[in-house]
TrEMBL record:
Keywords, in A-Z order: ATP-binding, Ligase, Nucleotide-binding
Pfam families reported for this sequence: ATP-grasp_3, PylC-like_N
Provenance organism: Metabacillus rhizolycopersici
ATP-grasp domain ranges (all copies): 119-293
SUPFAM superfamilies in the cross-refs: Glutathione synthetase ATP-binding domain-like
UniProt name for this protein: ATP-grasp domain-containing protein
Amino acid sequence: MNILFTSSGRRVALLNYFKQVYQQQYINGKVITADLKNNAPSAYFSDKHMIVPNISSPNYLEELIKICKQESIHLIIPLIDTELTLLAKNRHLFEEAGVKVLVSSVELNEIASDKKKTFQFFVENSILTPKVYTSEELEDKAYKFPLLIKPLDGSSSKGVTKIYNEKELIFFREYIPNAMVQEYVEGTEYTVDVMVDFKGNIKTIVPRMRIETRAGEVSKGVTEKDTTIINAVEEVVNLLPQPAGCLTLQCFKKSNGEITFIEINPRFGGGIPLSIQAGANFPLWTIQASKGEIFNVQDYSWQENLTMLRFDEAVYTESIQYAN
C-alpha cells in the first residue's frame, strides 16, 4: 500500500500518523509526498519526496500519473482545496492506472469550493446557515452590523473580515477579491471531522471546539461528544452528493442550541491530528476504505475532552539546493 500525499506542505503530523498505522498493522508500503517545493517540511518525514509543477500547470496531471506508475502508488490523498475538483474530474485517468483517489464527487467539490454554492446547498436543504446578502440587499442597506466578508473561493480563513460600519464595508468590498457579504453569527465555533467510505457510509464524527486559530488553522482545540452537533452533521453528510474519505465541516453552536453551518471541506483538515490522537483512526479507516471496505458499524470510542495545544517545530538540513 503505497500512498501519495499531494500538496504535502507542512502536514507532517498527518504523515506520521499514517506511518504509525503502517507499523502497528504491519502494512508493507511507503508514504510518498509531492509538492511544488523541495523545502516543504513534509519532504523530510516521508519515505520519498517528489517535486511537481504548479496545480495550474497543463502537465500537472501527467506528472502525477508518471509518479504513480514509477512508485507503484495505490492511493492518492490530496491535501489542499485547489486540486480537489481537478482530481475529481480526472479520477478516471488514475483509475485506468490502477490508482484510487481519495476525493469526493465533482458536484460536492464544486459546492464546497464556492461559498455561494455552499450557501445555496444549505438553503435548498433547509440547513441553518448565515444569510448571504445579494447586491440589491447591500444597495438597499437591508442588513445590520456586524457583518462578515470573505472571498467566494477562499480557504484557510484568508480574507475573512468582521465588518463594523459602512466605511469598512465599502472598503473591504473593493479590497477583497470576489467578496461575499454575510450575516455575522455569534456562538461557539466547531470544526467537525467526518470519515466516510466510498459509498458515503459514516464511520465516525468528531466535533472539535475551536479555542484559538492561527492563519486560519486551529492552534488550540478540544474534542467534544456533543450529540446535538453529531446528529446535525450526520444529517448534512447524508445529503451531500457522493462524499468520500475525510470531510471537515465548520459550524457554530448558538446560545439557544441551534447549529449553524458555514463551510464544507472535503479533505483532511489542518486540525485532524487532534481527532486522530483522540482515537478516531482516520489513517487506518482511509486505508480500509481504499481497499473497498464498507463501514457498516460506526465508531464513537474516541476520547472526549482531549485538548490540543499546537506549537512550531523546525527541520534543520544542509541538503537543499536553491536555484540562483
